[in-house]
Amino acid sequence: MIRAYKFLLRPTARQAAALGEMLRDHCSLYNAALQERRDAYRHVSKTTVRYGDQSVQLKEIRAFDPERQGRWSFSSQQATLRRLDKAFAAFFRRVKAGQIPGYPRFKGVGHFDTVTFPKDGDGCRWDSAPRDRQTRVRLQGVGHVRVHQHRPVQGRVKTVSVKREGNRWYVVLSCDEIPAEELSPTEAIVGIDMGVAHFLTTSDGEHIANPRFLQAMADELAEAQRHLATFPHRTRQRTKRHRAAARKVAKLYAKIRRQRADFHHKTARELVRDYGVIAHESLNTAGMTKRPAPKPDPGRPSSFRPNGAAAKAGLNCSILDAGWAQFLGILANKAESAGRLVVPVDARNTSRTCPECGHVAKENRVTQAKFECGRCGFAANADHVGATNVFNRAGLALCAAA
């Protein structure tokens, strides 16, 4: 198994400054490599510069600028160039697929937050210590940085990444050869229905409330964003007060993100502990949260009819606040580690199908919370009906697989 561990770093003031310089220098390398690719294609007969060509130049770059580029790990700089190469590969893939290409952009200092060391021991060293000693990670050009290791690391450390979130620093370890921690077997099966009114509803009839972390902090976040917007555009990123206002907004968003992730982990752990098979709808949240297409008005050129964009924006915000995709990913990872089975099923008409007679109709969903079959008269909570249908479809899928 492969797993990532994320720990808080506790650098000294001098180490924090060195970490910031490391990010800035890697960002400068990324932007210079992007500029070279752009210039070569535009001015040198559409010449394509690849990762291998730029990686060869690293030795000369480090010798030319030993103060900024020569002090950092050679392999971490290769990883930065490889990151740019992946961005171009994704760009050309989208071009061939007919999608919106999205040409790679230059990175501002505030938008380049991660440096990766591809191999433990090459420019970095993870030093996992017993409980009576302080765990540290050694980074070339920075030193031995203290780590708040809140849980043991299993398996073999493959890559080490240093990440900045607001004014906090984290180390992310990617490990493989992690043994599975299987729980005692159980034959309990459950279907879950993801929702907005309730975060999820099980086929056993249990409702788990939607915490709505973004909505809970909406007023405080709006006040911080209004304060940030008061600064004129020409002074942005130039004054101490503006940087403090931007950090305030980032801090609030980081808190919401941590609260949501903590809730997802705890909810997924309870499901994995109690059930051997967990079925859920196969949801395309990216498609569900897309903005509605504009509707041109045939009678009036350059005019559009109402398309419900305002109402859809509210629904999109609620779906993204719930974080369905992140939760289902966490659930799958925990289930794999515990030896449980997760079964995604077709999500179509799960809340419109009567579990008693199988009648499918839009009118069966009377309201957001009420389901009433127009054929047999069966009535129940709409979310519970959806979870029951997910449970039934998972049973059919398991029988077919057997």
Describe this protein's structure.
The chain has 402 residues and is an alpha+beta fold. The protein folds into 2 domains: 174 residues, no CATH class; 184 residues, no CATH class. Helix content is 43%, strand content 20%. It is built from 11 helices and 16 strands. The strands form 4 sheets. Strands 2-6-7-1-5-4-3 form a 7-stranded antiparallel β-sheet. It has a 5-stranded mixed β-sheet with strand order 10-9-8-11-14, sandwiched between helices. It has a two-stranded antiparallel ribbon with strand order 12-13. A hairpin with a 3-residue loop joins strand 4 and strand 5.
Task: Determine the mean pLDDT.
Answer: 91
> Which class best fits the helix and strand makeup?
alpha+beta
SSE succession = EHHHHEEEEEEEEEHHHEHEEHHEEEH
Terminal Cα span: 25 Å
Strand content bin: 15-25%
Question: What is the overall silhouette?
Answer: globular
Number of DSSP E strands? 16
Q: Please estimate the helix content.
A: 40-55%
| Total individual domains | 2
Largest sheet: 7 strands, antiparallel
Continuous helix count: 11
The largest sheet has its strands arranged as 2-6-7-1-5-4-3
Structural features:
2 domains, 402 residues, 11 helices, 43% helix, 5-stranded mixed sheet, alpha+beta, 7-stranded antiparallel sheet
